[in-house]
TrEMBL record:
It comes from the Bacteria. InterPro entries: DUF3007. It comes from Gloeothece verrucosa (strain PCC 7822) (Cyanothece sp. (strain PCC 7822)). The keyword Chloroplast does not apply. This is DUF3007 family protein. The chain crosses the membrane at residues 7-24, 36-55.
C-alpha cells in the first residue's frame, strides 16, 4: 500500500465515524451514547479487518507470497521453454526415476 492510500483510509475512517455519530444522534440517542456506539462499531470493524488480515497471513494468501510464487512459476516456465528436446527427455527420465525410488521406499 502506498502512503496516499493509508492517508485516504484514515480520512475515510474519520469521516465514517463522524457520519455514524450524526446518524446515531438523529436516531434519538444522546451525544454520549451516540459517541460510545459509534466508537464501538468502528473498533469492531477494525478488529474484524485485522482478523481477516491475520487469516491471510496464516494461510499465506497474501499479495507478496502470490507475487513470489508467480515469479517462480514464470522462471521455471521460461527455463523449460529454453530446454532442448534432449534435455527435456533427460529431465523426464530423472523425474520418473525419482518417482520409482520414492514408491520403492
Amino acid at each position: 500500500m502506498r502512503r496516499i492510500d493509508i492517508i485516504g483510509i484514515g480520512i475515510g475512517l474519520f469521516v465514517a465515524g463522524g457520519a455514524l455519530y450524526l446518524i446515531l444522534l438523529k436516531a434519538g440517542l444522546d451525544s454520549s451514547d451516540a459517541g460510545i456506539w459509534s466508537q464501538a462499531l468502528l473498533i469492531g470493524g477494525l478488529i474484524g479487518w485485522v482478523l481477516t488480515y491475520l487469516f491471510r497471513v496464516v494461510t499465506k494468501n497474501m499479495t507478496y507470497n502470490q507475487q513470489v510464487q508467480d515469479y517462480k512459476d514464470a522462471v521455471l516456465q521460461k527455463r523449460l521453454e529454453e530446454m532442448t528436446p534432449e534435455e527435456l527427455e533427460k529431465l523426464q527420465a530423472e523425474i520418473e526415476q525419482e518417482q520409482q525410488s520414492s514408491k520403492n521406499s
